């Protein structure tokens, strides 16, 4: 089977430390031929570092010269939509960083185009590849959970406003803690329920700490230009009466530096995801089950491989274009509820 | 100052172990003159046990013979409304067990009558008297919290469906985990925000475990007659954009036997209520403050005293008739949302 | 159904604190009519303390006057045999303290007579009634263990040579740590395997610390009259290739004051008994299962009830006469191996 | 003093990571001149990696060309015997990996030839060089233990069947968990007692988990070709009435991933080896002694040096040919007992 | 041997809960015949409670009517001197509460009179009877400590200003934390060194928290009348170059509610007293020795018995009149140093 | 601004691992031009390792050829005085390792010359740059401590006599544990009080363990040449009645390998330095404040920068010449008290 030709758009940290190493480890399936960035010097440097032949500062040249089979998009959120659409217009599969886009309509259009073109568009929610998530899925399959009816999902940082990049710029990122952190656990929660579209969405967003400034645990941020929410909370209900409680924060007056977890409640058993524990009844008694030897996995490598599986038409648990559109709609409805 | 004459309606556990001992310790302010119960034998036994002169099996005789100044209502939830209305019609102050009633309209009528008659009607939410709540209030007053904008409140039992009484009978109790447990932490959460009326209320209720049966940690329940929710979750938003996340359960597949807490997030500091901790910035650093020597208090005694203060027109932090009406409305809106 | 008439032989601690309270709680099934002891004053005092009508200093009078249905034997080990035989000759069921006897032949004769007379002879191994053992049994039944092939059983005290009674007198007790402590865990281990008769038995006994003296944690013992083993270890193999490792000590230079446990290894899962934990594979991963809410049970009450069930021909997990004979044979073979 | 000329037979992991680095650090006493392996490429690569001059694919050439003074044998267990015999026939001292051989007779023949030739034959039981074992020995010498009379020794893995090499091939290894792991703790236990020959040996072996397959913690094994025991238990008694309980497993349904320990019981004190603790009486009280600052030692380096000491006729605690023969006999008797 | 006739002066808590119960348990050696207090009602009530025949409100009558053999003094510190002198003038042995007196001269005079009269005067420092202190003494005797050269002694409370009695009244108590708490650990420290008279004494006292008020953990104190030190620190050196560091507080901004300990440093070993641990070298390694099973003792009973032993001329470790005089001199020199 | 020219005197570990790396990181402010050591080979090697141009074996040549602006002195304690004096005579600022000197007079002369010449002489007490000390200072400034009145400072090693260098040579080092370790915590304690000159100084020194030998945790020392104190304790009082308790040891029979801490007691709050905790009253309750996210800092880099700030006339918290003279006087008075 011939190798797929891949290009990356965006030459930042996530390309350098996540996507390129994963693609390189999958060199029996994919050949990385170019890096494209508005900043040619960055693109060139990254290409050289990883032994990638070409570097471009515009996609036009890149598509013409490389004719890639697939495109990995690692740019700010507001560029996901135009770049993914352009890539699909060139007949490329697309592996796009999360979140899908900065509006629900964009994500919907992206999904529609992918469907129309018969292309694979997928989003890089790597937590789906953790040992904990694999185990949760296995517990569901093996009937240890029973039907799931409620999920509490949170991804909270005490003072983790990133001090670099565009994370506090709403026009580029589309939002703050919810867009950057909340989507990870929201994606998992939706997965556990079968990715339904919610009935009701109610939510709140706050920016008090972000706009006041203070001690930073992930670099220092500028309160004056802080334009996104530092915390978002929401409640989702679904047609089958299941529900999700969601919390995400860049900054919140809580104890732990960082706290990321899902509590998943089913009729037979409940699970705590990080660290994994199963709470159920066994042998007629309430039982707590721990799994002490879960494997450490390279979640980016597994997710990139899952994307390649999807491109090849094989079963894959990568986040699909359709799921991305649903998730983006949920995010937008949370922001709308908070603003109303 | 002459002693107030008090009577109790209801001769169950809560009268015996909570209200009567508290009233007896406050014998310089109140004189317990009668116990009234549909079951005269129970009423008589309880009166004798505590040295209370009279016992009745109907309120008509009781009001005629005793002419009480105040009435303590310790009956099933569905009786709170008729008994409180009757008491106020007799010109009595009323100290009523929680929850206020089984419908919002009842609680509203009760509040209106109290206002109209100039009587004190109060509800026995004793957690307001814990050292932890006093300290939270003091932290708010001392400016250690800043404006509070979000609260996570939960009161969860893993398998704590009470195996006695009417707890699983909807017609008598009006509901399950939310009515019995959730109202305690909801009352505190509303207090922390100034008892506003919510804008939006969305919620869910479940009864899977209750109807399936299983291991009980508070006696054994009968799945066949289980008629209430075993879990309720809700999200409340308020006109000033503050919000509350609420969870309550009699049964849920979680780890702890029982878990009751409020996490209260303010602009300057956040607090964890049980056990109490304050998370803030101090001397330019993120700081966690613990208070190792909080006093053990008799919360029933303090709450009964607070009710007597209210009767006497003194400042009091007891749950007022108006607050009870708001809380009951919230509860009803949660049930309505869950049913819709 | 008429009440069974019960008498106790022996008026010591075990009668006073274990058997009589249990029998009294079972007053709907059994009526305790007499206590018999060589020391009439002790017998009288014990009978009075518990409201038992008669006291005797010889069994002849007792049998003649009381005509009991069942006899509970609470005397030193060397008396179990003659007293049980006499009781059965009088047509009585017998509930005998552990160990069955001080020789294998005695225990075999006792079992034979019980079988011949169609009477219930049972031994008071109460650990069979612990929540942990019930759970182990349930795990076996539910297929969570798989076939069990090896058991490590121990009951070790660091310096727990009893400073009272006849525990160090070989002629009365027949042995030391193995007779007093080891038999408890040996009985459970044999139960878990189906009470097979071993192929090979090899063992060792020691008395170095007992004869040297030292710090006592259960009273002070006299090294000069110390006549039993302070420690016994053994290995048992069975025809189906299963095996048991057994250790018991009154005194051993180990860390814990007291350490009593069984580790039970099966093909599918292994269990640790005290505290209970199950080690197995679940959902494709190695799993440790804990049961945090095991019930506290009155093991004497349950064991006495189990004996009464056996007398009534109902299913019962009490230690039978036949099992007692097998266990006593194992004990004797351990002593023989150690002495050879 | 001239340097001894050393050669290694076997070019696997143990040669590469243990023996050669140790020999190289002892370059003032020994000169490594060759590596010999059936696979010349492996031999050459290993020699080059460590700067060793010669590589051979047969011992004949090697002995002729190198005339070594000592041979280090790092091959599968079944080759220890022929290679050690050949080496001694060439007048070489032999440092042989554990276990000594795959039959008791082989190990006996090896010891006899060493004695006859006046050569040093020793086995690489490196745990003798741990700080814990040195301390145990010192405690014995200083009289803190008193005479030792019982030892519990175990080396248990929960799912540690090696997924590489020949560990599950009975013809090459001679056995499984006992041959690979059990011998380490058995050697120490025998040392503590003065390396006596046992009176009685009874044991059991199992292979249920190995043949059923499952989760592996040390690579994945093939249940179909699993030909050794996954667990072995044994009891040894000695002419002076001392005894040893031994357990070893590649796979057992227990909690810890790996658990290796000796509990050593003496008349005055008892010791736990890993981690080291002494349990005794001091100042008239029961005392637990911990030694918080034991030195980390390079046990291979110390054991190789001990072998060289033995070659030079100096005092040494390396495992001797005679001890190896006794140990191998014990192992064989355990297998025989298990098979009978 | 005839019983000694004892009387108590002082009818407060320490008499009621410590001295009388101890004396009553020693009824084979001593007969308590009277209680004497300025407040006859209190004296009478206490006497009745414990079955003591007589009660007095003046010592004159008491001595005349009772002719006691020994007197137990349980009054405020300033009365120890006159009452002890009077008792000895009446030929009585004296068992006096700590501290000996409120001035060094008083304590010296008391010791002199005792010596002159040949009477036993002793002080009730009960910590000398703890298992920990007995063990320390035994470790010294057994040579496990070596010569002791430095001791750190402290008795610190965070907010433990007693809210009752005369503890903050300097005229009655002579001082605060040092007089009440510090003397306990100072007495032990001096004992460990052989009760030498110090060369140099330098110290400091503070009263900032006591005079400022605040949260109380042992009742509430009145800052306005707070007349003693809330903290005292001192350093003592002795002619043989040994030294003591001493700290005592009623109130200090430290973490623990209460912290009482001695660290005792010797040439061979060091000991921590509460909880007891020995730090030494054993078997060539640094060793920490713990004694997990120290006996719980009734230290008042043992100290009263030790006093009676002293009266009978038997060996006794009770604090002697001479030791009390030395201790009181040290206390006075600390206060003088602090004031200079 | 032109770069300052720096030279180092002394080519040992502290120069190599602390001073040169710090100076190199500050290359925008300082240029290291030479290393000077009596041993030219060492000087040359160190210079080459760090890319420093010149190496000298005498200061005369060094001053003539390099004309440095500042000198860093990293030699044994007895050379600090002559080398610092010479440096200042050459008009150089001096950054001198701690302690300042081996006599109070030397340190006083050094301070006087610095003042007279208008040069910066500073000592390298880097603990002043720890996050903990910065936070303590900030707490003082923010009024969280109140006036500080007592400090307990200790720096204790159990068996940490350095096995290398001159640490046990009194003529070169001037002393032992106090000179090497005690000065660090003494400097901080004096800082917290404003660096007052004490009223009274009383102290003790010991050398029992050092002269006896034993297990070493920082290399092995020679008891025969051990010429310094292995432990020193002292008490200091100041004109304003504040006080310091000081302990330092190379060897002491205590539990922890190493224990370094200051407990600082103020009127409002007390602080524990390592790890940092604040103990105070907040919201009317006793409160313990922890700061979980203190920054890890390069304390040598910060201290060298602070020295350069001082040279440039900027505010700096480096230990000044005057403070060094006071500290050295305290050390000398402790030794004098111990010797008297």
Automatic annotation (TrEMBL), chains A, B, C, D, E, F:
Gene3D superfamilies: Dihydrodipicolinate Reductase, domain 2, NAD(P)-binding Rossmann-like Domain. Residues 142-270 form the GFO/IDH/MocA-like oxidoreductase domain. It holds the Pfam family GFO_IDH_MocA_C3. SUPFAM superfamilies: Glyceraldehyde-3-phosphate dehydrogenase-like, C-terminal domain, NAD(P)-binding Rossmann-fold domains. The lineage of its organism: Bacteria, Pseudomonadati, Bacteroidota, Cytophagia, Cytophagales. This is Dehydrogenase. Residues 5-125 form the Gfo/Idh/MocA-like oxidoreductase N-terminal domain.
């Amino acid at each position: 089977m011939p190798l797929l030709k891949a290009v990356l758009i965006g030459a930042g940290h996530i390309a350098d430390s996540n996507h390129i190493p994963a693609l390189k480890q999958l060199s029996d399936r994919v050949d990385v031929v170019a890096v494209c960035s508005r900043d040619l010097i960055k693109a060139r440097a990254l290409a050289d570092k990883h032994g990638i032949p070409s570097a471009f500062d515009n996609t036009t040249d890149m598509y013409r010269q490389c004719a890639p089979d697939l495109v990995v998009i690692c740019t700010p959120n507001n560029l996901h939509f135009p770049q993914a659409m352009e890539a699909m217009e060139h007949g490329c599969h697309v592996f796009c960083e999360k979140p899908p886009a900065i509006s629900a309509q964009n994500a919907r259009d992206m999904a529609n185009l992918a469907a129309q073109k018969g292309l694979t568009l997928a989003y890089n929610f790597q937590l789906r590849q953790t040992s904990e998530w694999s185990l949760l899925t296995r517990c569901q399959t093996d009937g240890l959970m029973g039907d799931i009816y409620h999920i509490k999902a949170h991804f909270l940082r005490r003072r983790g406003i990133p001090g670099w990049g565009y994370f506090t710029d709403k026009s580029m990122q589309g939002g703050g803690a919810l867009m950057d952190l909340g989507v990870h656990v929201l994606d998992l929660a939706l997965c556990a329920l079968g990715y339904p579209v919610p009935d009701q969405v109610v939510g709140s967003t706050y920016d008090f700490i972000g706009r006041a400034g203070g001690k930073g645990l992930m670099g220092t941020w500028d309160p004056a230009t802080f334009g996104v929410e530092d915390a978002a909370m929401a409640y989702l209900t679904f047609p089958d009466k299941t529900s999700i409680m969601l919390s995400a924060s860049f900054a919140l007056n809580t104890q732990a530096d960082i706290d990321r977890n899902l509590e998943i409640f089913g009729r037979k058993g409940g699970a705590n995801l990080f660290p994994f524990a199963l709470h159920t009844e066994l042998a007629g008694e309430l039982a707590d089950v721990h799994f002490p030897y879960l494997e450490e996995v390279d979640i980016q490598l597994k997710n990139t491989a899952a994307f390649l599986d999807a491109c090849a038409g094989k079963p894959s648990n990568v986040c699909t274009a359709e799921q991305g559109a649903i998730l983006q709609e949920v995010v937008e409805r949370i922001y709308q509820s908070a603003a109303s």
